[in-house]
Amino acid sequence: MQNVIDNIYQQVKCQVHNGNVARYIPELAKIDPDKLGIALKTIDGVLYVAGDANESFSIQSISKVFATSLVFSVIGDDLWRRVGKEPSGSSFNSLVQLEYENGIPRNPLINAGAIVVADMMIDILANPEKDFLSFIRRLAGDQNIHFDEKVKNSEKDTGFRNVALANFMKSFGNIHNHVDDVLDIYFMMCSVSMSCTQLANAFLFFANHGMIPATHEKILTISQTKRLNALMQTCGFYDEAGEFTFRVGLPGKSGVGGGIVAILPKQYSVAVWSPGLNGKGNSESGMLLLELLTTKTGTSIF
Amino acid sequence: MQNVIDNIYQQVKCQVHNGNVARYIPELAKIDPDKLGIALKTIDGVLYVAGDANESFSIQSISKVFATSLVFSVIGDDLWRRVGKEPSGSSFNSLVQLEYENGIPRNPLINAGAIVVADMMIDILANPEKDFLSFIRRLAGDQNIHFDEKVKNSEKDTGFRNVALANFMKSFGNIHNHVDDVLDIYFMMCSVSMSCTQLANAFLFFANHGMIPATHEKILTISQTKRLNALMQTCGFYDEAGEFTFRVGLPGKSGVGGGIVAILPKQYSVAVWSPGLNGKGNSESGMLLLELLTTKTGTSIF
Amino acid sequence: MQNVIDNIYQQVKCQVHNGNVARYIPELAKIDPDKLGIALKTIDGVLYVAGDANESFSIQSISKVFATSLVFSVIGDDLWRRVGKEPSGSSFNSLVQLEYENGIPRNPLINAGAIVVADMMIDILANPEKDFLSFIRRLAGDQNIHFDEKVKNSEKDTGFRNVALANFMKSFGNIHNHVDDVLDIYFMMCSVSMSCTQLANAFLFFANHGMIPATHEKILTISQTKRLNALMQTCGFYDEAGEFTFRVGLPGKSGVGGGIVAILPKQYSVAVWSPGLNGKGNSESGMLLLELLTTKTGTSIF
Amino acid sequence: MQNVIDNIYQQVKCQVHNGNVARYIPELAKIDPDKLGIALKTIDGVLYVAGDANESFSIQSISKVFATSLVFSVIGDDLWRRVGKEPSGSSFNSLVQLEYENGIPRNPLINAGAIVVADMMIDILANPEKDFLSFIRRLAGDQNIHFDEKVKNSEKDTGFRNVALANFMKSFGNIHNHVDDVLDIYFMMCSVSMSCTQLANAFLFFANHGMIPATHEKILTISQTKRLNALMQTCGFYDEAGEFTFRVGLPGKSGVGGGIVAILPKQYSVAVWSPGLNGKGNSESGMLLLELLTTKTGTSIF
Question: What is the pLDDT of residue C20?
Answer without folding.
Answer: 85
